[in-house]
Amino acid sequence: MIQKPPEMTKKSKSLYTAWVSGLFFPLHEALKKHTSVSLLKQMEKSQWWDQQRLQEFQLKKLRELLVHAQMHVPYYRQLFAQTGFKAEDIQSLSDLERLPLLNKPIIRANTDALKSDQAQHLARYNTGGSSGEPLVFFIGKRRKSHDIAAKWRATRWWGVDIGDPEIVIWGSPIELGTQDRLRNLRDKIQRTKLLPAFEMSEQKLDGFLAEIRAMRPKMLFGYPSALSHIARHAKAKAIRMDDLGLQVAFVTSERLYDDQRQQISEVFNCPVANGYGGRDAGFIAHECPHGGMHITAEDIIVEIIDTQGRVLPPGELGEIVVTHLATHDFPFIRYQTGDMGILHDKPCRCGRGLPLIRELQGRSTDFVVAQDGTVMHGLALIYILRDLPQIEAFKIVQESLDETQVFLVSKTSLESSLLDNVEKAFKARLGETVTINIQQASEIPAEKSGKFRYVVSKVSSR
Fold this sequence. Notes:
Number of domains: 2
Distance between the termini: 27 Å
Strand order of the largest sheet: 4-3-5-6-7-8-9
Oligomer: single chain
């Protein structure tokens, strides 16, 4: 049994880590006009509040968000007027149920109207694309600060901090495409190294293992499928990775399966900490060393709804709906994540008052295999389609090494030049002689299980 590490204390930090987390990173955040440092201090106190105090805090912040939306966000100003909803009259968290749900189609149709007329310095973001429904939205500095503080707090639960050596195995072009000099310098100072998760060839995996052994990081961060794939390769090659002093492997963006947790934990000799959230919904929940999946209740209200939109009690499975309380600039109020989950009705053994998600049944993406045997994360194909505004939804089915089906949903007929570019991009990743069958469809059907899978590979990556 692997012993879970103690939570971060001042004595357990190296002098360098203490300098980065206590001086460099706070200065970095101040220069970016983020309030994450003060928020972290507040969150490290409020995590120990009881349920009643947390709910009172949530209600206060919810009322502030709704009043702001009513006054300054055109979409909600009109919606509240049409429904007769008055933000100032809200008396309990359950009053939130009186508001309609928010989803990706609504955001796409009302992107400008969802911006606050007081918003400044908005940053444009895209969803990761695993849902098959690319989404453009905007984030202000307040929301960014809250998400940073929430992640920072959860990181410290595991005895590591900003400044401890870290390897990030990721695939987003946002991260991979912005490695300029300043970012490279920041990452070097913070001892963070980014490895691209798209390509998983044997040569690349050997390189990843060599990088990890050379750096001897305190923590790993990445997709569960990517980390488990690397762990499986290490075991197959009999390369020891259990003697590096790793304290934790953080995973997110996909559903974490039990066999993946066990594989990562055994190979790297460290606990696995599951995280749940996204660019759109925010930093929703994170696992503590006692196994509780804690909701970031200071920022996030989580509801579970059935197919008719009715709110379900703890213990029942339904769709996860999120209200992010720090999204005044571009509100996410009752946002449908598309993920399935169950809330817990019992507290965690760690003593925190933060509510728990008992079970997550989120979406996951497969690996795909190129004609030459190169194994890639499914997101390598998703990102080809993600930012094309003409495409509303898609599904990719790798039938064999020689054939891949691409189903596209759009309101209008797609131009041949766009389809040619999509085909070329797929061939560049899968192989020039692979047949790419692109079909326009009116909708993307669900699997027999009722779940949606947006990358399906019938080719074994093992």
